[in-house]
């Protein structure tokens, strides 16, 4: 957010410049008075008072959403303040209301400019998203995370935290050819904007990850997000009340994102369409398979670009075939027990051993290939001791 002041009156003297800055600071004080805790306010006032010997008649103040890794209270206060400044000139607005809220909430949309004044100073607020912020930090959104916004706003109704899952394709213990297939698929997907447009399909891709617990389904999702620099939206299906809410939540996800619905087999309604038909009248209070399928089939096409959907399950055989049909889930990825090749990756990650430098590796690899052991179990073992031997 970049408010900048642009004086309308005589600006030739230092005094007038100082006045404009003072006016700006007073406006800030008022804003902070209204919305900030007292301790934070007095700290900021001291800072502002000491701040500058003005040299220019223009001042740009940058208020980032984040202050270090924390959310910035000044940004939040500015956001609330700007809601009061919405005028007939405002071109776009976000309007929303959750079931729990009594009133509608209106907020401004990124990209919008708001003109403001204080005393004799003109102010212009630009609500911008910097390219740097957009692409460098991968976020994990979920309905439980802090800082939920409003339906309809980008990322609204979702709280977010920075994704600090260190998993990458390099650290993922997986058959190298399977890994390459996924990376190639993601790359192809990214490059195919024009292709999707030409064939009249939504620019989205669906992946089904299936396999026993601890084989790296969540790690693969994090690796995909880190690779693509896409945000993750984690949806807990059981917390969604009905298809309508499902639709609203999904429409508030942003472009360049991965929507994750984990353990889809645990949601009974999703398993079997027959059962759903029988219970159609009873299922109004839940998310139904047809609700999900409708959404996957087309709803998204009108609502965004570069979307990836990932379903995970430990029991693929329990899912309704309708959900697994090609075109819905474009790629089915089997995450399975560790192989000797996967073990090499883990040994390199955890012990820093390059390849097969240790005399025991060959023997262990044979054991790994002859039994069912998950990468999670092996990782635990490899973390037990600093002594490699
Ligand atoms: N393929 C893998 N490569 C590297 N590490 C892995 C892999 N699979 C599991 N791990 C390790 O085990 C931990 C748990 O794995 P993860 O949560 O990704 O498995 P999952 O298949 O999603 O399990 P669940 O089905 O229980 O959610 C990870 O944090 C990671 O340390």
From TrEMBL:
Tell whether Magnesium is among the UniProt keywords.
yes
Q: Which reaction does it catalyse?
A: ATP + H2O = ADP + phosphate + H(+)
Q: What cofactors are annotated for this protein?
A: Mg(2+)
InterPro entries in UniProt? AAA+_ATPase, AAA_N_dom, At3g28540-like_C, ATPase_AAA_core, ATPase_AAA_CS, Mitochondrial_chaperone_BCS1, P-loop_NTPase
An example molecular function term from Gene Ontology annotations: ATP hydrolysis activity
**Segments traversing the membrane:** 12-32
Q: Which SMART domains match?
A: AAA
Q: Which GO terms describe its biological process?
A: response to stress
Q: Which residues form the AAA+ ATPase domain?
A: 203-339
Q: Which domain of life is it from?
A: Eukaryota
Could you confirm whether the keyword Cell cycle appears in this record? no
Q: From which residue to which does any coiled coil extend? A: none
Mind listing the UniProt keywords for this protein, alphabetically? Answer: ATP-binding, Hydrolase, Magnesium, Membrane, Nucleotide-binding, Transmembrane, Transmembrane helix
Q: Which family is this sequence assigned to?
A: Belongs to the AAA ATPase family. BCS1 subfamily.
Task: Kindly provide the name given to this protein in its UniProt entry.
Answer: AAA+ ATPase domain-containing protein
The species this protein belongs to is Brassica oleracea var. oleracea
